[in-house]
Amino acid sequence: MVRSHVVPFDPGRVGLFIPCYIDQAYPHVGMAVVRVLDRLGVRFEYPPDQTCCGQPMFNSGCFRDAAKLARKILKTFRGYDHVVCPSGSCTGMIREYYGLLLEEEKDDPDFRRLVTRTYELCEFIIDVLGIETWEGRFPHKVGLHQSCHGLRGLGLGAPSELATSGRTGKVKKLLESLGGLELVALSRSDECCGFGGTFSVFEPAVSSFMGLDRIADHERAGAEIIASYDVSCLMHLEGLLRRQKKPMRIMHVAEILDGASA
Amino acid sequence: MKTHAALAAEFLKDPERARWHDQALWFVREKRDRLARAVPGWEELRDTAQAIKRHALANLSLYLEEFERNAAARGAIIHYAVDAGEHNRIVLDILKAKGARLLAKSKSMLTEECGLNEFLESNGVEVVETDLGERIIQFARERPSHIVLPAIHKKKEEVGEIFHRHLGTAAGESDPTALTRAARAHLREKFLAAPAGLSGVNFAVAETGAIVVCTNEGNADLVTSLPDLHIAVMGVEKLIPRSRDLAVFTRLLARSATGQPVTAYTSHLLGPRPGQELHIVIVDNGRSDILKSAKFHRAAFCLRCAACLNTCPVFRRSGGHTYNYVIPGPIGTILAPHRDLKKYKDMPFASSLCGSCSAVCPVKIDIHRQIVLWRNEVVEAGYLGRVKSAALKAATAVMRRTRLFAAVGALGRRALRLAPRFIYNNRLTIWGATRDLPEMPARSFRAQYKAYRRTGKVEGDRT
């Protein structure tokens, strides 16, 4: 399949960060990201020493443990001009919170670069590469799950709480440019799915209840697929869907972009 | 004391009730959104409100003196209480000096925080809450489950039952209008009989010495004007410098709280009415400690509007009584640890960290960020618990060594592929009780990627 995307901006040396749970449990999402970047003509490297950004430890309050993993990520991605990651949550962790964890490194130029130039995949495509539409068809009814950290932390969408008008979410923009794709209207456009990292096991009752409520909303809206830029939320929702034996599927945005036929 | 997680699991055993609670509060959140959008410059208004709070609280001593001077000039008597105990004693002494044994009260979260009602009752003073919701939970001998809607956890049938027992309404009567009428008649007697009234304060204006009380039921106006003795109690953080600053806050408060353009009553009290005694009790009770903290000081800006409760997906699905502190919800989870970190160690974990709280807060408190910072305080104090700490330490040890991570991952995936599904997808595991684990692929991304770069071929599917 040949795509005619032309990258108008040279992003320099690009490092790909594939979060640990995608590496182990959802490798096909990682491969979809690889193909999307390949088709965009982005030259990138996948430094194999990477593991986890440290978010599970950070969100549980174990900052010392998280700092060890943050330091490892910094070491792994030293020298890259941009880091791309198919997760709003892990990207948010690096950009928003590494400053709290690595205070000693705050003047290190590699650290400055890491925390300002790590991008979630859709952001990278739109904001760094300047590509706002995606050619291809994906004739399905899709419910967009706007994961919280990407939505409110990175601004990938327009959070429903804010009174700022006239903004369309970046992910929404990319998806809507696909032929045949219908984004269904949810009654709660951006409520949390209840995954919340270790929250999912620290507070399993509320977490599951929240997830089932999200699924019901997507169901009522007629979605065939729940799409997100965060596989962690989708893993939680998929687990609930399968237990309930519901036919709805989950897909990462990269899989949709990759799977859209010309 | 049961943790929030345990209490929430109990709450969710009645899913129908949980959905009703969720829906009732979501309705308020949506009203808030509509009204906020109708105000041009809403987000700038939030910034301005925060700036005013920051300024006022950074110059607290200055504005306290100015307020005291101006309020005293208008005839108010000012008291300072360093903590809850002193606050309660001051109120009791004022009542004793007047021989008042019945106190009509309008809603005040500060008195909940100080445990005033119990204290006064144990000293022979009858306390009557005159806010309808507060009166309901006072009859039921419960604490408020919500800052602004204290009886939101009660259905109208339950209120009917309570009123039947306490006010003699007909058995089975659950019509809201009929119940409200009964409460009104009952409260009217109390308003007329009470020699003393106590109210909270929403804003205290330094330049005029005015106190401003925002309510919907009008009960505060009766409480503050009918009796010959009015006691107003306020946290130090209620001070704002100028009257014009009020315009910022009154635009934000009711919209954020209940999705109303303004509260039904916004009463500006400039000194006592003729023949009345007005006491203003200004309370610290830990607020200056919050203000001193570099990490947590913004928590002291809170207006007690409860917008963060209404928007919180966890609060809506667990209810206010699952939080052990008097102030529930997101703001409660960051205020409680200031009181007692050990006692409230579970509260910062009652959040999925979605960040919606910070996005609705009218004074832009960084609530979700403070929640994470409090989790760190819990960990550093050694209160996380042995199992959780050990699990996270072990995970960190594995993640630090890439080859070990890859090997453990491969082993885990292999085990999960080989084991029968019921071994891990069952009620005894925390994840598997409600959720299936993902189907594990034979090869990790790192292995597939290596092969792809070598051969140019994709291994394909997830199995």
Task: Give descriptors for this structure.
heterodimer; A: 262 residues; alpha/beta; 4-stranded parallel β-sheet; B: 463 residues; 6-stranded parallel β-sheet; 4-stranded mixed β-sheet; 22 helices; 10 strands; elongated
How would you describe this protein?
In chain A, 47% of the residues lie in helices and 10% in strands. In chain A, strand 7 (225-228), helix 12 and strand 8 (249-252) form a beta-alpha-beta unit. Chain A contains 13 helices and 8 strands. With 262 residues, chain A is of the alpha/beta class. Chain B has 463 residues and is an alpha/beta fold. Chain B is built from 22 helices and 10 strands. In chain B, the strands form 2 sheets. A 6-stranded parallel sheet of chain B has the order 1-10-7-4-2-3, with helices on both faces. A 4-stranded mixed sheet of chain B has the order 8-5-6-9. Chain B is elongated. At the A-B interface, helix 1, helix 2, helix 3, helix 4 and helix 8 of A face helix 1, helix 2, helix 17, helix 18 and helix 19 of B.
Q: Which spans of chain B have pLDDT < 50 for at least 5 consecutive residues?
A: none
Strand order of the largest sheet of chain A: 2-1-3-4
Question: What is the residue-averaged pLDDT of chain A?
Answer: 94
What is the residue-mean pLDDT of chain B, rounded to a whole number?
96
> Share of helix among residues of chain B?
40-55%
Total count of helical runs of at least 4 residues of chain B = 22
Structural class, from helix and strand content of chain B?
A: alpha/beta
Give the strand order of the largest sheet of chain B, numbering strands 1, 2, ... along the chain: 1-10-7-4-2-3
Radius of gyration of chain A: 18 Å
Beta strand % of chain A: 5-15%
Weakly predicted, low-confidence segments of chain A: none
What coarse outline of chain B follows from CA principal-axis ratios? elongated
Order of helices and strands of chain A: EHHEHHEHHEHEHHEHHEHEH
Class based on secondary structure composition and strand pairing of chain A: alpha/beta
